């Protein structure tokens, strides 16, 4: 099934943990180059949606396609591998390797996982460090970097795999307010460059200014999905209105 030219197509996915149904029929289509923000209360299923998209969690029902990959049909880690190369994920906890420099952190996966040529990978890694404005930190270890700098290295590391899409899960939630800005600035530049991404975020101003579309989730459903100006200025569902009333 490839009913549209969309890069990502999710149709009516359901997921339970034990008796608890976390996703109750989520549908979402993302075009190439689109930046979609997912907002919603804690526990509404936002992270679970992202984990289903890159196959970290198998869905119980429904359909997920990313590019050529029919994710809902993939059963083994081996089958997942090409998908994981196409779909990068950046988390709240950056999880850099502490005994590797910023540059080495970015180079590891392309060399070890993709088997790319070391000199080529290093060249690309330096360009990525420049892109996230950390050229001068190439030889620093994660412990010598601020949280925001570490998160930008983590973003560069994700980009080093040359993914088709990046999933960002509350990547600024653990950062000091001063460093949140620099990370959001980096993401904004990537969106401007045409990177396809899905961002779970609590940064409403960022969602409004940067995303093409915002989805509001509540209790395992996408309650409302609209361009940011519409969703923030004229929310249609009472649950969206209530949530925005609390966070804005
Ligand atoms: P959000 O990211 O919106 O805060 P999550 O997708 O992380 O929400 O979680 C949604 C619900 O599913 C929460 O109630 C959470 O406790 C539950 N949940 C998530 N992952 C698991 C898991 N692996 N096992 C059991 N329950 C889980
Ligand atoms: Mg979450």
TrEMBL record:
GO terms for molecular function: ABC-type amino acid transporter activity; ATP binding; ATP hydrolysis activity. Keywords: Amino-acid transport, ATP-binding, Cell membrane, Membrane, Nucleotide-binding, Transport. The keyword Protein transport does not apply. PROSITE patterns: ABC_TRANSPORTER_1, ABC_TRANSPORTER_2. SMART domains: AAA. Pfam families: ABC_tran. GO terms for cellular component: plasma membrane. This is Amino acid ABC transporter ATP-binding protein.
């Amino acid at each position: 099934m490839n009913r549209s030219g969309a890069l990502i197509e999710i149709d009516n996915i359901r997921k339970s943990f034990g008796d608890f149904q976390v996703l109750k029929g989520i549908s979402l289509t993302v075009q190439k180059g689109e930046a979609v923000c997912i907002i919603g209360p804690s526990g509404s299923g936002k992270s679970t949606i992202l984990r289903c998209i890159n196959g970290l969690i198998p869905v119980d029902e429904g359909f997920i396609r990313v590019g050529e990959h029919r994710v809902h049909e993939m059963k083994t880690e081996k089958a997942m591998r090409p998908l994981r190369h196409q779909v990068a994920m950046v988390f709240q906890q950056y999880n850099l390797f502490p005994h590797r420099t910023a540059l080495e952190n970015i180079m590891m996966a392309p060399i070890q996982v993709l088997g790319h040529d070391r000199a080529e990978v290093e060249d690309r890694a330096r360009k990525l460090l420049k892109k996230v404005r950390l050229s001068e930190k190439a030889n620093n270890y994660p412990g010598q970097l601020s949280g925001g700098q570490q998160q930008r290295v983590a973003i560069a590391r994700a980009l080093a795999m040359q993914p088709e899409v990046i999933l960002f899960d509350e990547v600024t939630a653990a950062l000091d307010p001063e460093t949140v800005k620099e990370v959001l600035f980096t993401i904004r530049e990537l969106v401007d460059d045409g990177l396809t991404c899905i961002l779970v975020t609590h940064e409403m101003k960022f969602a409004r200014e940067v995303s093409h579309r915002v989805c509001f989730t509540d209790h395992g459903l996408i309650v409302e999905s609209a361009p940011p100006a519409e969703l923030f200025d004229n929310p249609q569902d009472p649950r969206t209105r209530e949530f925005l009333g609390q966070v804005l």
